[in-house]
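Please supply some protein, with fold tokens.
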Amino acid sequence: MPLTRRQILRRRRITVFGGLGLVLAAGFYLPFTLLAPLHAETAQVQSWQAPVTVAPELAFPGYGATAVGAVGWDGPLAVSGSTDALPIASISKVVTSLVVLDAHPLAVGEEGPSVTTTASDVSLFHSYLARNGKVEPVRAGLTLSQHQLLQLTLVASANNYTATLVNWAFGSEEAYVAAARTWLDAHGLTNIAMSDATGMSPDNRATATDLIELAKIALADPLVSQIVATGHISIPSVGEIDNTNDLLGLDGVRGIKTGTLDEAGACLLFAADYTVGTETVTVVGVMLGGADHPSLDRDIQALLATAQGGFQQVTLVTAGDHIASFTSDWGDVSTVVATADSSVVVWSDTPIGRFVDVRPITLATAGTDVGKLTFTVGTRSIEVPIELSATIDDPGPWWRLTHPDELF
């Protein structure tokens, strides 16, 4: 049966308006899907196992006070024995040398001002000799440099030349003692007391903990560090003199100062260099109250052997290590990798932690910086950048048109 005119018009209206609707829908849908921003992807972080570190069993002696530390590490790493301030004998001369250099700076390679000895210096020689103190020959009219006096103080441990040094530097020992107190306070060494420049006074006392800090300060001074590592000196008109530290050059030892006094026993403030992995670690330590220097030296060698084993280099991350990964809704996958190697020398069972900070991303090219790794090693923090290993591309129009529910 033929369509009526009215039916034909109705069908035309449906076709026109239907087509118009489709055009309008497409005009809205296509821009919505093709131009809509993609939502950010969150990384999935890989699990991580902290490096295993082991605490050493240190060979501490059963007397006096002992402490071990290392340059670059805070405070002492281990202590044993008395925590009281004990007599330190000629270790005092380290303080004396640093206080003199604070008032009269001298660089490596410089001799400094000249000092001419007088009859007073000859009297000092006889005074210390009468007290069984360590002395070196002197006569009136000798001309010595500041550097030579420091050598005689730290290498020879000559009490008479130590007194000559402070009398030149400060005018009197009393003035030196006041300057030493000011210097010690300024460096936070409140548990070191100085009553004279040489250490012949048993009232020169210190805790083992503060002596660790003193050792670090001494090694940080280039001239003092050089002098205490010197095994032999030759001073015209004085003589050929060996360092009083018999451990020098053995087991990595490169200083610092011996001490001997009835009230103090045998003492040594020491430093030793060791290679740990690819790094050099400078161990510092002190041992007070030994029976004699031969037995003290053996005890220090035993302690250093065990302390050396307490340091180890651990690998935190290697460049290219897989840290995390991104997987887009349309199937692109990119791992997040470390951009650099990182290792660290640790002491004992120092705790090591890791925090991964990865920024969410949408589209990004390979090599894009996406955050960082932060390792906590004791009180230290070490950061390593991380980046994408592959590009995450736009999914393209077909995926956008067929996945409108996954946009935004």
Q: What stands out?
A: The first strand starts at residue 44 and ends at 45.
